[in-house]
Amino acid sequence: MPVTTLNGRSVHVNEEGFLTEYDEWDEDLAKVLAANIGIDLTEAHWKVIRFLREDFKAQGETPTTRRVQQVAGIPIKEQFVLFPKKPGRKMSYIAGVPKPHGCV
Amino acid sequence: MSTETSEPIIPSFDDDDDTDRKLAIICSKGNLDMAYPGLIMGNAALGEGVETHLFFTFWGFDMIIKSRMNDLQFSPAGNAAMHLPNSDRHMPQALAPAMTGMATKMLKKQIADLGVPEVPEFLDLITAAGGHLWACKLSADMFHVDLPDLRDDVEGIITAADFIEMTKGAQLLFV
Fold first, then answer.
1. A84: left (phi > 0), else alpha (psi -120 to 50), else beta?
2. Residue B1: is its pLDDT beyond 70?
3. Domains of chain B (ranges plus CATH)?
4. Taking burial as the number of CB atoms within 10 A of a residue's CB, which of A14, B47, B99, B105 is the most buried?
5. What is the pLDDT of residue B3?
């Protein structure tokens, strides 16, 4: 399992670069991850990221964009604005959770 | 002192390439089971940033006609691939004609149990994600249907030639 250096410390990641250890993430790291992919985090972004963290912890899997809309109340249109083109993947990366696996 | 500096591994989200990638999905079926492949693939493509167009033709029109879209059905008749629940045994074809109602209910439940939405809501998700919906002119003429009869988010009734032009360079998926 590769280890990479982010924000001055070693973090476990998979071959793609997604964090593999839930507890190695913190909000400072999130800012670095977001910067890595060219995203400036606003309160709207944080709302999504925090939901992803909680929901992953509670459900054991990363919510899909649909679940983010239905449960967290953040419309899909907005998710595409906050995390352009590949919202599911980008938000998961920043939130330090695996890519969503749901088909919908 | 470490002699190696590790470059941080950062996922590539292909923001610069793949901007030209396009997918065109032709939805020609009106049975409940066959409504889904186009929707699932379309939604997946949209989630990966691919410009996606869905073209509804023939029986696929039922997916976008307001008065029919909530009533898609499924019958095992002629569908030799249908099996008894959780079994490798086939549904006997002789029973199939009487089973449309039950088979539809069963299929809807299986789909719902996976957290997959019904067709109208699924199309809402697709347009919310930026997908484009188009209706086939020939089918509209054949079924005597016009824009007001269709979902509000259908962008227009167009000919096959229009669609071919619009989807230049696109990957094509026929369902």
1. beta
2. no
3. 22-70+118-174 (3.40.1260.10), 74-117 (no CATH)
4. B47
5. 36
